[in-house]
Amino acid sequence: MKKKRWVLLSAVLLLAVLFCACGEKPEGEKPVASPELSPAASAMASESPLPTREAVESPAPEESEPAMESPEPTATGWGEPLTMPWGDTPPETTEERRMLAYQAVMERFLTEGLFPDGAPVDFSAEDRSKNQFTIWDVDRDEVEELVVLITTTQTQAGHTALIYEYDGAHGVNVTLQTYPRLTFYSGGTIQTGWPADDSSGGDVIWPYTLFTHDYQTGEYREAGSAKARTKALEGVKFPAEADEDGDGIVYCINMDYEHPIDGAAYEAWRESILSWEREVKVPFYPWTEENIAAIGDLVMNEAQAKVLIEQANAALAPFLGEGAVECGQEGWLLLEGYSTQEELLEGLKGPFTNRLAESFYESYAPLILKEEEGKVYIRSNSQDIIGHYYDMDLETIVDIREDAALLCSDYAFAVEGTGNGTPVKWEIGINKQGVERKISHYFCHGTQYGEYDERTVILNEIPYRTRYSLGSPVWLGEPEKVEEHPEVWGMVSKTEHYPGLEITLYDMQPNLWTGESGFTPWYIWVTKPGIPTSRGVEVGMTMKEVLAAYPQFDMMGADYSDDPVYTRWYPWYRGEYAGDCVLFYFDDNFILEKIFFNYDVSE
User: Fold this and answer.
1) What stretches of 113-239 show up as alpha helix (H) in DSSP?
2) Which of 55, 222, 376, 596 fits a disulfide with 338 by CB distance 3.0 to 4.6 angstroms?
């Protein structure tokens, strides 16, 4: 027996020596995929309910490395590692490089069937467009990731979700690999459903694992898992002693099947991880050439902003009566091609964020639109109510990205334009929404305010500079009445009443700019005709006349009071930079009833 074992061992050693001596692999053969290179390999080899997570890096070339096309896969399916597509001249910004890198990854998936490291995807014969991807800041670190869902593989074990992140040093790397049944939360947590429900509680909750984002390492860490068990399906095997509320449901946390917990404890466990987070609906897109090419549109430039602005102007056109025809109803025009008002709102939601579209629609639709028997009508004077002020010279568009933060936007652009012949300057904020960009701020201000200080009010044709004025406006005469007010915000105030005019003043004690003590005007109300204010506007004017003097386009509507009184606020949003900050109140006939100036001179 010992002799036979020795002979067998000798034979094995001899084969090993021969293999080492002449063991070059056949031409074209690649090594077996390792978890460090191929995320799919580790996913398919896993025996756990969830595919394992591996950090995967795609080798990145030096910035000077020329662009290389990946060769066709060899007979074994392997290709070369993906190189970044910009060669010797990388794009100027990190965001541009990031989007081009994501685009290259998706093009390789679609056309070559390869992971970034060259490993083959175990695709079936199904149409690859059934797979999905998105560009989204899923980990909430203010940088978009590429999320790839692969489901058209030959076996279910090959189904996988991969979250790629670009960094300048390593190209793209995987921060999370899991099963493609994902739920995203606002704090960066991701819930991943298991490939199969091997418990009895799938109709209560589908078994899942929660991953939280580690902002120091940039990777995801498993925070816990949960699955349910039900008495209805388990019968006598059900752990009734753990079912404190008697609803026939218990939960197993972190695969601890020996110590199930009841619903209240399960909710407390889940709350300890998700805390304040809410679910986020992340849009996904099919793997099509068109969608993959659109990844590049995420890098917003002036040409792309111009296209989006043109779409915005087209969406606003119906609200200004463009395309409307005579219909025999006095004061109304028929908007052809529309059967409901909501269709107009949906048109706005194309180029504008939902918030901005809905605000504009809710402010103006009741004033200018009506719907009867499947037809939509618009007032013939809608331009006088809203203002025909989206005429822009798009050749003047410039990137003002430094102002993006002021607009609470990701990008900002400025455009010159006119409103009824009056020069205006547009400021447009654009936000990221998945693989789309939408306008989040869309407004303009006049250019006349440069004649006076930004906080100047003209009353009786006299510039009244509230920033530096102290005491009462004595040139108005003695007030009819003075109301003293108790201390507010540490200051004493009073209101002076004149015919058709009220002014509230605060005692600055002393004034922040002059060092003098005295009352400084803060709020001004004009309530009667005959008191011209800035740009000659006075009570009794029509809305059309006011809009001629204040050509700012008011996308938000600024309807702050109950019907039938309507308000217009100029300039919208950035009053401290754009001249007079004025609130106009109109009656239901669009006649100006009162004017309110609000100046915060405490700055």
Assistant:
1) 231-234
2) 376
> Helices (DSSP H) in 235-285: which residue ranges?
263-274
SS3 225: strand
Contact assessment for residue 179 and residue 194, using Cβ atoms and an 8 Å cutoff? yes
∠ Cα 301 305 309 (to 5°): 175
Calpha distance 74→94 (Å, rounded): 33
Residue 53: other Cβ atoms inside 10 A: 25
Distance CA 266, CA 225 (A): 11
How far from 360 is each of 115, 386, 418, 470, CA to CA, in Å? 45, 10, 21, 39
Length of the chain: 603
CB distance 262 to 218 below 8 Å: no
- Asked if 75 contacts 31 with a C-beta cutoff of 8 angstroms, the reply is no
CA distance 440 to 360: 12
Q: Are 180 and 39 in contact (CB under 8 A)?
A: no
Contact of 243 with 265, CB cutoff 8 Å: no
Closest to 493 (Cα-Cα) out of 478, 482, 480: 482
- DSSP letter at 63? T
The two three-digit tokens of residue 167, written as one number? 């960094």
- Within a 13 Å sphere around the CA of 51, how many CA atoms are in the beta-carbon half? 27
> How far, rounded to the nearest angstrom, does the alpha carbon of residue 58 sit from its chain's CA centroid?
28
End-to-end CA distance of the chain: 99
Question: Which residue type is seen at 315?
Answer: A
What backbone torsions phi and psi does residue 231 show, to the nearest 5 degrees?
Answer: -70, -30
Query: Which of 529, 558, 526 shows the shortest CA–CA distance to 542?
Result: 529
Distance CA 137, CA 144 (A): 4
Alpha-carbon distance of 375 to 333, in angstroms, equals 11
The DSSP letter of residue 261 is B
Model pLDDT, residue 460: 56
DSSP at 152: -
Label residues 568-583 b or e (16+ Cβ within 10 Å = b).
Answer: bbbbbbbbeebbbbbb
Among candidates 537, 603, 547, which has minimal Cα distance to 576?
603
3-class DSSP state for residue 538?
A: coil
Ranges of the chain whose pLDDT falls below 70? 1-76, 198-200, 296-299, 388-390, 402, 405-406, 420, 434-435, 446-476, 488-490, 508-518, 554, 556-566, 569-581, 598-603
Q: What is the largest CA-CA distance in the chain?
A: 126
The answer to whether 445 and 578 are in contact (CB under 8 A) is: yes
For residue 569, list its beta bridge partners: 583
SS3 for 343-370, per residue?
Answer: HHHHHHCCCECHHHHHHHHHHHHHHHEE
535: alpha, beta or left? (left if phi > 0; alpha if psi -120 to 50): left
Token look-up 């670009």 returns: 166
Contact 292, 100 (CB under 8 A): no
What separation in angstroms does the CA of 15 have from each of 4, 5, 10, 23?
17, 16, 9, 11
Name the nearest CA neighbour of 469 among 520, 517, 508, 428: 520
434: left (phi over 0), alpha (psi -120 to 50) or beta: left
Rg (CA), the chain: 34
Residue 242 CA, chain-centre distance (Å), reads 44
Q: Record the pTM.
A: 0.53
